[in-house]
Amino acid sequence: MAIRTAGIFLLGFAAIGAEPKMAVPRYAAGDELIRPEGYREWIFAGSSIGMGYKDGDPPANAGFHHIYIQPEAYRQYVKTGTFPDKTILVMEKVTAGTNASINKRGRFGAAFEGIEASVKDERFPEKWRYYDFIGQGGPPLKQAKAFPKDRCWNCHFEHAAVDNVFVQFYPVLKEARK
Ligand code: HEC
Asked: 1: Cβ below 6 Å to ligand 1?
């Protein structure tokens, strides 16, 4: 019994000592970003459904967006109000389901569609780069090229509340600095 207790104690200790390092962006040739992994164990920053940037109703098939950030980048943001170099925000896209099982109203996350990501990398003059890993009609992409600035960066730069990140729509980040 004493031996077993000691064993458990040591295991616990080893687990504390082995705090994982921040997941950093990994690149393939030509600075293509390799699809981030493990983000479901990161901090969940917020979600949205059917957001649009022009007047009018959302499309009937609007899905959910779930936003995740590395725990270490989150903690830096809480402390300093800025996102550190190598911050990754993953936006997971999930279709919206209704009228299934016992559900009669409202919408729930149904099928996983894939991910997009924004990455802060101070190696690049524009710092933030934007990627889409949803293979249109095919399997998800293992790596992706950054979009040109006018496709993604401009809108994030002009309208996002903090350093290209839409903190105004992520309650976890918004609350963190109050
Ligand atoms: C017209 C404005 C606009 C454009 C253009 C735009 N976004 Fe966004 N993006 C948003 C808004 C608003 C959000 C906040 C939440 C959401 O959409 O669910 C967001 C959130 C994100 C996020 C989550 C993290 C963050 O940075 O806040 C990612 C990742 C993202 N967009 C990727 C892209 C990619 C990739 C493109 C280009 C193909 C793009 N965006 C173009 C407005 C824009």
From this structure: no
